[in-house]
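Entry for hypoxanthine complex. Fields follow.
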Amino acid sequence: MGDLANHIEEAKAIPYSDIPNFPVSTVAGHKGNLVFGKLGGKQVVVMQGRFHFYEGYGMKEVTFPVRVMKALGVKTLILSNAAGGVNPEFSVGDIMLIEDHVNLFPENPLRGPNDERLGTRFPDMSEAYSKRLRNLAKDIARRDGIMLREGAYLGWQGPTFETPKEYQLVRLLGCSACGMSTVPEVIVARHAQMEVFALSVITNCAIGKEIAEVSHEEVQTAAKLAQQNMTHLVTELIKEL
Ligand code: HPA
């Protein structure tokens, strides 16, 4: 969703490197700015580039930006990711609304002493992805002729793409897509009682059809295809918040 930052009015970009304790992204094609401004008539802060566990950051670092946003007064967290689709009905370039997740990361970002000022020890995850926001997005997609898939996301650490059997496992667990991000941020956001909305771009399909070899370049090309619709959906959703 890096393109979204280009649509922000009165934008003020702050490089991550200028923010104390903020990690810096190491992946090609991921920028590193916190961009403040207005979108859809609302005050927003957009992360241009995010931090992945597979880069070697600890879970506290991966989710630090969410803590910062909470401290800044952010109430709604909107996330996006690239994901491998294992629902046989999906095609490359589809946008999937995340309705739930399965967390298979080796560590939970909330492990360790709980700071009661930030949230409760045992956070509820029964509706991690806000039903209200999902319904709003579905209404917008229907209204504006954007095809929106729906499904659960399985998050694990990567950085290897999945073996054929691992893709099968994702499907067996009732998920429609898998990837290497998002779940840690969602956990910390729910701990802080933020309302969460998330979209996956299906950049490769890995079940039902022959499992193709995946490259980072292909993932980026497919993500670009969906960018315009993603930007539209998110901007319209923000208008209605
Ligand atoms: N697996 C994990 N992460 C991904 C994939 C995938 O197939 N595609 C894009 N990100």
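NOTE: The pocket of hypoxanthine is lined by residues 82-84, 161-162, 178-180, 203-204, 206, 214, 219 (CB under 6 Å).
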